[in-house]
Amino acid sequence: MPASRLEHITKIGVEEMGALADTLADPSLLRLENLDSDLRPPESALAATRRAVDDDDANSYLPFLGLDATRRAAAALVGRQSGVDYDWKTQCLICAGGLSGILDVLLATIEPGDEVLLTDPVYVGLVNRVRLAGGVPRFVPLIPSPAGWRLDLAALEAVDPRPVTAALLMSPSMPTGAVFDRREWQGLAEFCRAADCWLIDDAAMERVLFDGRPVIHPASLPGMAERVVTVGSASKEYRMIGWRVGWVVGPPGLVADVARVSISNVVCQTGIAMGAVAAAIEDPDDGLGRCVAAWQRRRDVLLEELAGFTVIPPHGGWSLLVDVSPLGLDGAAAARRLLELGGVVATPMTHWGSAGAARYLRLVYSNEPVERLRGVGARMRRALRA
Predict the structure, then answer these.
(1) Per CATH, which fold does 43-282 belong to?
(2) Are 359 and 311 contacting, i.e. CB atoms less than 8 angstroms apart?
(3) Calpha distance 209→195 (Å, rounded)
(4) Which of 122, 161, 166 is nearest to 141 (CA)?
(5) What's the predicted TM-score (pTM) here?
(6) Which of 87, 127, 191, 335 has a CA between 20 and 30 Å from the CA of residue 352?
């Protein structure tokens, strides 16, 4: 029998769709199921990685909290976004990827049975980590519309804050691409102050924003710097997925607790990758602006292609959702038909939030160029309206 902590840990769906597509080995398949990107990391990061392969110091468990250069760079990055002056020595540690950092923060902040506020739909990997840490997800809806997603502030106001120990939030959110505006961030900040809870900011795609939207970091809001912990990652903004390097930045006492968890969990980070991440963060030509423009163009092409479907436009991030329920389907059935009849690999949103998330199908546009995205609308009409 599996351990009881695994009782509510579900599959994410991506692993199944990705494995199926790999087995088919068909280059004509349109791979829209997984958050990869074909856009290259910064050249400075690639050069630093090559050097690290021959650097004996990079082949070490030490230092356990991460290279000084990487901690300095990460703390400065979060400081620039939030306007908060962070001491890298006491307020930053490096983790083995952003999601490892999130689990470490949850293990350091919540007790079994505590509620954790999440938006809905949301990445099932975040839900699973809340449950693995003993927490209980408390979902607040994101409201879909032809203009995009908005946080249901009325539903947020109705949540009893007393059992909530942490709010685990992401903007742009995955999988929706929802971006909180200032009013929504203020509502979330008011909730966290009323609950006297932590705000765990999953900042993996914080600057992947479309149509000129500004970065609004929650630690910049009044009274929030002492309760916001930022978990960042090199995977999305710097396109360094395989490096597996992230960071946790926040109040000194909390970071010290997270460090104890981190050392007891994955022990240390990827030695040959940390210097490269520091180089990427500090590189004024990190390529992010060009990449955001490319991803926005891909989003726009998908929105054009999918005219006639119920698509909720993302305001940032790497993916969008299609509501397939008007077609008499759920996400799982749509994914099967789309693969079999359309040659498109996409992920159903089963378990990605409350039961209502199952009506959605996720399409990732970060890994396919515009030329290949052209025609996806015809494929989907052929498969889903057959």
Answers:
(1) Aspartate Aminotransferase; domain 2 (3.40.640)
(2) no
(3) 29
(4) 122
(5) 0.97
(6) 191
